[in-house]
Amino acid sequence: YLGVMPAYSAADDALTTKLVTFYEHLKDSSVPSHQATVLLFDPSNGTLKAVLDGSVITAKRTAAVSAIATKLFMPAFAEVLCILGAGVQAYSHYDIFTELFTFKEVRIWNRTKEKAVKFANSVSGPVRVCSSAQEAVTGADVIVTVTMATTPILFGDWVKPGAHINAVGASRPDWRELDDELMKNSILFVDSRDAALTESGDVILSGAEIFAELGEVLKGTKPALPEKTTVFKSLGMAVEDTVAAKFVYDAWSAGN
C-alpha cells in the first residue's frame, strides 16, 4: 500500500512529505519491500526545495531512534547484540549499533539463512549466523527485530531477564513479531501512543499496557528502567523524516 507522511518542524524550519510504498517482498526479487521518497519544502512559501531518497533516510533515522532507545533502556554492561531479520533495516541497525556501542558478540538470524550468511559476509565485523531465532536470542542483552513477520517470531521464554528489545517490524494492526508473554511481561515504550494503539499488532493484539513514549523519557517525565526487561515498539514518525531530510539538505547545501 501507499503511505503519506507529512510533517512540519518549527525548530528545524522544515516541511516535508514522505511517500512510502509497502509490498510483500518476493523471493529472489531485488526490489525492496519498502520504497520511499521525501519531498522537502520551504515552509515560508511552499516551494519544493529538494527530492530525497526516502529509503535511505528511513533506514538511517529508524536505526538512529532505536539507538537512542537502546542507550536509555539496555542493561549495564551489555555484551551480546542479536538481530532478527537481514534486510535493509538490519544493515542500518548493525552500522549504528556497532559504532555507538561495544558488543563482544553480534548474532543474526533470518528466515532465509542464505540472506543471513550474506549479511555476515557483507558487514565490517564478525557476526555469528544462527540456525534458529531461539539460538540467536538466548542470552542476548539487546535484540532488534526487523522482519516482515505476520506472526510472532520472538517469544518471552527465550528472552534473558533484563534484556532490551527494539521491535521495528510488524507495522500493521494484524501483524506480530513478539508474543503475548513478552509484550505483557516487559516494560513497554513506544514512539507514539496514538500510532501504537492503531497501527501495532504487537500492542493491539497482546493488550499490553504502554508505560511511556520515548519522548517522555528523554524529557525526564518518565524513568527509563534499564534494570527491567524492556520493549521499544518503533513505528516511525513523520517528524523523524523531516529532521533527517533537513539535516541532509543543509549538509549538501554547505558542500558537506
Automatic annotation (TrEMBL):
Enzyme class at the top of the EC tree: oxidoreductase
EC number: 1.5.1.1, 1.5.1.25
Matching Pfam families: OCD_Mu_crystall (PF02423)
A GO cellular component entry from the record: cytoplasm
MF terms (GO), sorted A to Z: pyrroline-2-carboxylate reductase activity; thiomorpholine-carboxylate dehydrogenase activity; thyroid hormone binding
InterPro entries: NAD(P)-bd_dom_sf, ODC_Mu_crystall, ODC_N
Family label: Belongs to the ornithine cyclodeaminase/mu-crystallin family.
Record protein name field: Ketimine reductase mu-crystallin
Protein's organism: Certhia familiaris (Eurasian treecreeper)
Lineage: Eukaryota, Metazoa, Chordata, Craniata, Vertebrata
Name of the gene this protein is made from: Crym
